[in-house]
Amino acid sequence: MSEPLSIAIVTGEASGDRVGAQLGEEIRALRPDWRLFGVGGKHMERVGVELLADSSRFGVVGVAQGLSLLPKIIAATAGFKRELLRRKPALLIPVDAGAFNLGFPGIEGLCPWTRKHLPQTPILYYFPPGSWRRVLKRTTLAQNADMVSTPFPWSETELTRLGVNARFVGHPLLDLVQPVEPAAAFADRLGIETEHPIVALLPGSRPAEIEYILPTQLRAAEIIRRRVPGVQFVIALATTTSKAAILKKVTEYQAMLKNRQGAGSEQIAQKLREWEDATGIGGNSGIVPVSPGGAFAAPEELARRQKAWIQKASGLPEPEGELPLVMVEDRTYDAMAVSDVVVAASGTATLEAAILGKPMVILYKMSQWNRPQYWLVRKSLPPFIGLPNLLAGKRIVPEFVQDDATPDAIAESVIDYLLEPDRMLRTRADLDEVRALLGTPGGAARTAQMAVELAERGRTA
């Protein structure tokens, strides 16, 4: 009886870890006895992939931080290559992470290395880097992959034109982006008032993002709550985020607000409740343009509610005390689903919000050490940083980068969403079009079938 085959899966940061885990699960469903090992994070480990290196520790922003982690990355890579030579897997599946898997001038990537040292091992590249680009000038995938599974239809067209054996399978997030519980139940468990506006804050998962993006989001939240009475905030922690680092930033900011403004929050809350009772806007009558379930009232009804909200809010005293804020771990999709607007660091979270149809504001900031790098390359960057805008080919949601990512600019965009129901509706329609570009669910299952067939057939080229 022949030995079970083994497959190596190599992922990058948190988003790649989830996609790799999803694919690993689908492969196990087809071939339960096969051995899976590789590089990833806790999601892959959870589905039974033997981890030889934890890639979640290697998330960086910019060259400066990358250089500091380079020795650890080199050591982990060397150890993984030794295991590849020893185990000789039936298939190598790199997931995204182009710099690591394909390499760049002066640095040999894992795929070229595998071609050289394990020529009989086929390579299935899942989620090729830059697959969101509508036009590709060049690629090394024809030499470094036997098959490519891509999440966008135009990516298949462009890669095929460049000689790559590529197949469009649909975006894996269509299966992954699913809230765990109904929005109303989630809100009730956390003490969130669903009849008040709710804004989700997603600062990202890297330490540098927590350091430079979260404070900007918190300052924007303070501006928003001064203009939108009763607004609440939810901070969603990514699976690889340091809860201690987030809690430290939030605690420091809340202490500053309390010391600066005094302890009048109870009085303000009481006046807000009295005002709601007097105007009839509180309780079940609803003052949010979008319900937590995502259903919309007619545009004229939304306009009426918002007009009443603005008129009555002018008589409220300025809010004081700490921000009305809750934190949730490993429940990002629930936090998005219950919210009216999402404020997110540029990255996979913006596409997840688009799939859920949530209007958003996108931002990105780097440290002063990485600013020279940004200014040097900014003219060669894509026209947008947010995936919804990139996929749509136009600016459908606001985005702010570096010096433009100010609390005032972010707050103004969120307030516009909350107080202009027509804009909210237009954005939802645009996001529906973006979602349609992602194909149909089942992309991971289709890729798993490709993986099994390729592993069993072996490399013929």
Describe what you observe in this structure:
- This protein folds into 2 domains: 6-172 and 442-457, 3-Layer(aba) Sandwich (Rossmann fold); 183-436, Rossmann fold, CATH 3.40.50.2000.
- It has helices spanning 14-30, 42-46, 62-87, 98-101, 110-117, 141-144, 153-161, 173-176, 183-190, 207-212, 214-227, 243-261, 265-279, 299-313, 332-338, 348-355, 371-377, 387-392, 407-419, 421-436, 443-457; strands at 6-10, 35-40, 50-54, 91-94, 103-104, 107-108, 124-126, 147-150, 166-168, 198-202, 232-237, 325-329, 341-345, 360-364, 399-401.
- It is built from 21 helices and 15 strands.
- The protein has a 6-stranded parallel sheet with strand order 12-11-10-13-14-15, with helices on both faces. A 4-stranded parallel sheet has the order 3-2-1-4, with helices on both faces.
- By secondary structure, the protein is of the alpha/beta class.
- α1 crosses α21, α9 (183-190) packs across α15 and α11 crosses α19.
- It is elongated and about 70 Å long.
- Helix content is 49%, strand content 14%.
